[in-house]
Amino acid sequence: MTELFQGAIKFYEEDYNNEKNFFKSLQENKPHTLFITCVDSRIDPNRLTQSKPGELYVIRNIGNIIPPYKVNNDGFLAVTSSIEYSICKLKVKNIIVCGHSNCGACAIVYDKNMLNEMPYVKKWLELLEPTVKEVKNMNPEDDRKKTWLTELQNIQQQLHNLLSYPFVEEKFNRGELHIYGWYYNIMSGQILNYNLIQREFKPIVGDKPPLE
């Protein structure tokens, strides 16, 4: 903890004081992008996107999961309310759902003994059941490939869940909202983007965003 406290002091004495005007400009919350990703400590949304404070509205949870839309207001409201707020109040123009390699959620979902020791995690990961079903139909030959396929399929499933929200689908269909699925390979540093039209992952290259 000593390093974290020292870091807080250094932030105020150096970063904040050197860029005081910039930080004062952050009094208003005006992000342009909703970034939904995992709580994994190795994921740094601002570093991955080279963005500054104030640009990203970030939602994080185990497995970068988006609960499917429900008419009644029950269930996993922490995520759904944040999505609603970012779109309806903050008027974000982009949404990125970012999964990653070596994802603990995508591995542990197959370990029933471990899940029984963590009932809250077990309940949350019930939302991965559609993803697990799709992967099992692919019949992967080993656990490593099964986890990898789960990580990729999970991103596609969460994009599907995201578009089940009427206020998301409406803005997306009108071209007012751009939606992307990213897969971050922690070991290589490469980020793949999922093309919703072609339904495939491709490395991010060039200086222009691909079609959704």
UniProtKB/TrEMBL annotation:
CDD domains: beta_CA_cladeB
Top-rank taxon: Bacteria
UniProt similarity note: Belongs to the beta-class carbonic anhydrase family.
PANTHER family, per the entry: CARBONIC ANHYDRASE
Sample GO molecular function, one term: carbonate dehydratase activity
InterPro entries cross-referenced by the UniProt entry: Beta_CA_cladeB, Carbonic_anhydrase, Carbonic_anhydrase_sf
Enzyme Commission identifier(s): 4.2.1.1
Residue positions binding Zn(2+): C38, D40, H100, C103
A family per Pfam: Pro_CA
UniProt keywords, alphabetically: Lyase, Metal-binding, Zinc
Reactions this protein catalyses: hydrogencarbonate + H(+) = CO2 + H2O
Identification of the protein by name: carbonic anhydrase
Broadest EC class assigned to this enzyme: lyase
Cofactor note: Binds 1 zinc ion per subunit.
The protein's required cofactors: Zn(2+)
